[in-house]
Amino acid sequence: MRTTEELVEAFSPDKLRVSPKFSAILCYLLGGDEWTTPSLVSLATTSDGYLMGRDNGDRGFDTGGVFLGAVSDLNANLAGVADVLELTVEERGCVAAIMAQHLNMDNWGNWNPWAALGVV
Fold first, then answer.
1. What is the distance between the alpha carbons of residues 28 and 99, in angstroms, rounded to a whole number?
2. Which of 50, 68, 97, 104 is the most exposed place for a label (fewest CB within 10 A)?
3. Which is nearest to 94 in space by CA: 30, 24, 12?
4. Nearest to 96, CA basis, from 28, 50, 29
């Protein structure tokens, strides 16, 4: 199994070709070292299943934040990247735990990083 550092590094824009928006989301979820500019400082899900972000220049979600797409797209993209990286079930669980550490669950409703990565 890869180390935690190796798993996080596997998702970095230097190693993985994804959109800048998805790189910013991954950076926030995995605690990457500011892989993107601007970087996200907060993410939240809405009650109707969408993902909102806030970069370091935003005042808060009450002022709108940045619309990042559907949570279902986030789940599909995470599962797809995990497949491309050939993560084992154990490694997927480790990545989900890293993501959970970086989330403010008050803003995430019932989103589950383990389910998104196909661990449960």
1. 8
2. 104
3. 30
4. 29
CA 69 – CA 77 distance, rounded (Å)? 11
The DSSP bridge partners found for residue 66 are: 53
CA-nearest of 96, 109, 115 to 30 is: 96
Query: Considering the entire predicted model, what is its pTM?
Result: 0.88
Q: How far apart are CA 52 and CA 89, in angstroms?
A: 28
Instruction: Name every residue whose Cβ is closer than 8 Å to that of residue 16 and which is 6 or more positions away in sequence.
Output: 10, 23, 26, 81, 84, 85
Q: What is the Cα–Cα distance from 52 to 35, expressed in whole angstroms? A: 19
Residues 9 and 60: their CA atoms lie apart, in Å, by 29
Q: Which residue has the tokens 């500019």?
A: 37
Dist CA 45 CA 12 (whole Å): 23
Centre a 10 Å sphere on the Cβ of residue 101 and count the other Cβ atoms it contains.
Answer: 11
Please list the ranges in the chain whose pLDDT falls under 50: none
* Torsions phi, psi for 21 (to 5 deg): -65, -45
